[in-house]
């Protein structure tokens, strides 16, 4: 019963914050859309790494009407929207720490922006990287088990250095891929550490692996 009531609270928060009958940015360009791209094949191969194909499912893509038609060449500015069932990050720390927390929170959405730029999707009219440019990122926290309502956080991507921003994200993904490949080559399951996401299956799998290694 409590689980069901919690789900209804999330739905109430969603409707109150983001009424689908009157969308803030008009009808979405896409919903629940798979995006994928093979990243930096020459760089990855030169590093001796397996092919890196990044895949993600974005909750929603909106036309960023805050920019209107300010982009050149018929490119559409896009707002990437991601819903979270939990609470927003607590930005009560020093400016440097708050910046780090925000960067971590928005990294997933930056990866979506990278996928749109490097590959995109063959579905829903978002098939070419040339026609879309990610300009705005929006995280909507539906409140978890609280009654505080939904909270929206936004981040603006720099139009004057969008490719540089996305290249930095790509470099970070490649670094992570390199660390994963190194751990796999080591052949030591115990070398993998837990992630910091309590819902991730790795927290269930790790004790099982430990038993097998004893």
What's the quick description here?
This protein is α+β, with helices and mostly antiparallel strands. The chain has helices at residues 2-17, 41-46, 95-118, 162-186, 202-213; strands at 30-38, 53-63, 76-84, 132-141, 151-156. The chain has one domain (1-211): Lambda Exonuclease, Chain A, CATH 3.90.320.
Architecture overview:
- With 214 residues, this protein is α+β, with helices and mostly antiparallel strands.
- The protein has one domain: Lambda Exonuclease, Chain A (Alpha-Beta Complex).
- The chain contains 5 helices and 5 strands.
- It has a 5-stranded mixed β-sheet with strand order 1-2-3-4-5, with helices on one face.
- α3 crosses α4 (162-186).
- It starts with a helix and ends with a helix.
- The model has no long low-confidence stretch (mean pLDDT 83).
- Residues 31-181 form the PD-(D/E)XK endonuclease-like domain.
- Pfam families: PDDEXK_1 (PF12705).
- This is PD-(D/E)XK endonuclease-like domain-containing protein.
- It comes from Octactis speculum.
What oligomerization state is this entry in?
single chain
What CATH calls the topology is: Lambda Exonuclease, Chain A
Spatial extent as radius of gyration: 19 Å
Structural class: alpha+beta
Could you give a short account of the major beta sheet? Answer: 5 strands, mixed
Estimate percent helicity. 25-40%
What is the terminal-to-terminal distance?
Answer: 41 Å
Widest β-sheet, arrangement of strands: 1-2-3-4-5
State the shape: globular
Count of DSSP E strands?
5
- The average pLDDT value, as a whole number, equals 83
- Relative strand content: 15-25%
**Number of helical stretches of at least 4 residues:** 5
Level-2 CATH architecture: Alpha-Beta Complex
Overall domain count: 1
Order of helices and strands: HEHEEHEEHH
Low-confidence stretches: none
User: What is the CATH C-level name?
Assistant: Alpha Beta
InterPro entries: PDDEXK-like_dom_sf, PDDEXK_AddAB-type
Protein name: PD-(D/E)XK endonuclease-like domain-containing protein
Domain PD-(D/E)XK endonuclease-like: 31-181
Organism: Octactis speculum
């Amino acid at each position: 019963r409590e689980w069901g009531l919690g789900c209804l609270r999330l739905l109430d928060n969603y409707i109150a914050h983001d009424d689908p009958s009157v969308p803030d940015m008009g009808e979405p360009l896409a919903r629940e859309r798979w995006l994928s791209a093979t990243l930096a094949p020459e760089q990855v191969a030169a590093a001796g790494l397996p092919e890196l194909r990044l895949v993600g499912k974005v909750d929603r893509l909106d036309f960023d009407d805050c920019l209107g038609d300010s982009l050149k060449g018929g490119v559409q500015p896009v707002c990437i929207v991601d819903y979270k069932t939990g609470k927003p990050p607590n930005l009560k720390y020093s400016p440097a720490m708050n910046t780090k927390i925000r960067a971590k929170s928005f990294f997933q959405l930056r990866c979506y922006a990278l996928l749109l730029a490097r590959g995109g999707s063959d579905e829903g009219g978002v098939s070419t990287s040339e026609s879309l440019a990610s300009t705005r990122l929006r995280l909507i926290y539906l409140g978890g088990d609280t009654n505080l309502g939904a909270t929206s956080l936004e981040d603006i991507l720099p139009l004057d250095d969008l490719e540089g921003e996305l290249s930095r994200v790509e470099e970070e993904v490649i670094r992570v891929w390199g660390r994963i490949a190194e751990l796999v080559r080591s052949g030591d399951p115990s070398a993998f550490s837990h992630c910091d996401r309590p819902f991730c299956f790795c927290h269930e799998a790790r004790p099982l692996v430990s038993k097998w290694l004893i």
